[in-house]
Amino acid sequence: TAYQNLDGMTFNVINQTKILFNALFVFLIMGDGQSLVQMAALGCIFAASVLVSFGDSQGAGASSEVPEDFWLGATCCMAGSALSGLGSAVTELVLVRKKRDTLVFSAELAALSAVSLCLNLVLDLNGE
Fold this sequence. Notes:
With about 130 residues, the protein is an all-alpha fold. It has helices at about 1-5, 10-15, 15-30, 35-60, 70-95, 100-125. Helix 2 packs parallel to helix 5 and helix 3 (about 15-30) crosses helix 5. The model has no long low-confidence stretch (mean pLDDT about 85).
């Protein structure tokens, strides 16, 4: 939904917020704050992604059309980025703090993914 309702530049810029969400969730879940230098680096990474995306869109001769469901696409993209950051923080918590074996953790993720895919197929959640 996000990709279909956003132009490429907007999608890429919003998608880059997953790094910021990761830092936020690591702080909230694990209590590990960022130093001033790390916060500045996060800001620079985000600013660079905005500038690169903006430069790409100008070079490609992007149209000024705003998709009909812009806010739906932006919300979905932001939610996906936030969930990605949350997943990264939880993975760090499990592997680093809880010292969980990586092979067991990967097997658990694979099993849960298989169950999720099977439920999706059985319940036809995609509506196709």
